[in-house]
Amino acid sequence: MMPTRKYNNQNWLPSIFNDFFDNEWLTRANATAPAINVIESDKDYKVEVAAPGMTKEDFNIHISESNELVISMEKKNETKEDDHHNRRYLRREFSYSKFEQALILPEDVVKEKISANASNGVLTIDLPKRTPEEKAKVNRIIEIH
């Protein structure tokens, strides 16, 4: 079992993924966290983050030193009403959304081939798995001289 980082008591994924994908929120500025799907196939893992209204510029994805895929999003919106002479704001709306989540990467992910796409309110991250040939290279026997 791989160690997981715990930040609160909420579980977002079934416990079977806890060994590979840490599923606790690191930081949330708003009370609503986006829904996340993690899908596994023979060739890859896919992480889908529901993010309506967000664009690719709102996201940041990186791999941490502790082998975690860190997904963060920050969006600031400000709706301004026209300011006319001798008038003052009686209502002005601000919006701020921020979240960050770290997922521990499985050992069979090819980090150099991870890709992401934001489309139609969903951020999709593709995590390709090593092929059997690549796994054999990683598990090679070291000759002793």
From TrEMBL:
<protein>
    <recommendedName>
        <fullName>SHSP domain-containing protein</fullName>
    </recommendedName>
</protein>
<dbReference type="Pfam" id="PF00011">
    <property type="entry name" value="HSP20"/>
</dbReference>
<dbReference type="InterPro" id="IPR002068">
    <property type="entry name" value="A-crystallin/Hsp20_dom"/>
</dbReference>
<dbReference type="InterPro" id="IPR031107">
    <property type="entry name" value="Small_HSP"/>
</dbReference>
<comment type="similarity">
    <text>Belongs to the small heat shock protein (HSP20) family.</text>
</comment>
<feature type="domain" description="SHSP">
    <location>
        <begin position="27"/>
        <end position="145"/>
    </location>
</feature>
<dbReference type="InterPro" id="IPR008978">
    <property type="entry name" value="HSP20-like_chaperone"/>
</dbReference>
